[in-house]
Amino acid sequence: MLWPDADGSAAIRGFWDALATAALPSCSTHTHRLHQPHISLSVANELPVQAALDAVGAVPSKPIRLRIESIGLFPGGVLFLACVPNRELLVEQRRVHQLVGPLGTGTWPFLAEGEWMPHVTCGWGLREDQFAQAAALATKWLPIHGWLDHGGVEDGTTGESWPAPQ
Fold it and tell me: Alpha helices, DSSP H only, in 22-143?
């Protein structure tokens, strides 16, 4: 996964906190509360962490411009911030997914080449009326610009993370 720089991360966390303050589902209050703003490049139900880190090396190979200009809703009420899919981001996702995908079991098909939607998850289980509230809040936070300047592996279940070498 890719993690944004300090400014981008702070802006995303600000939006998460605004959602929580409005009593909307938010990553700031979900499960273990250790979620970090990130863009997933490959996801598997099980993944050998060290093998994945060894396979990909530095993630990203050089900083990638982050532009978040809109929000969306995946099926099941998953609220997300949509990232503009620039060339560098698409190339990095393809590289990482091709190297890491075969190492994991239960690799998610939504991250295959041509299927991936670059995004930052913000909350789960939103109803239609809650999405309308979230969209109104987003107008105060968007756009969010920054850099994706470091990455690694994260266990979404526990919140534990392992940075890739720089």
Answer: 49-56, 87-100, 128-138
Return d(Cα 50, Cα 105) in angstroms, integer.
Answer: 15
Query: Considering the entire predicted model, what is its pTM?
Result: 0.91
Residue ranges per structural domain of the chain: 2-153
Quote the CA–CA distance of 20 and 17 in Å, as a whole number. 5
**C-alpha of 127 from chain center:** 21
Residue of 96, 100, 101 whose CA lies nearest to 148? 96
Q: How many C-beta atoms surround the C-beta of residue 38 within 10 A?
A: 21
pLDDT in tens, 143-152: 999 999 999 9
Domain 2-153 has CATH 3.90.1140.10: yes
Instruction: From 40, 27, 45, 37, select the one nearest 115 (Cα to Cα).
Output: 40
pLDDT digits (tens, 9 = 90+) for 96-129: 999 998 998 887 777 777 889 999 999 999 999 9
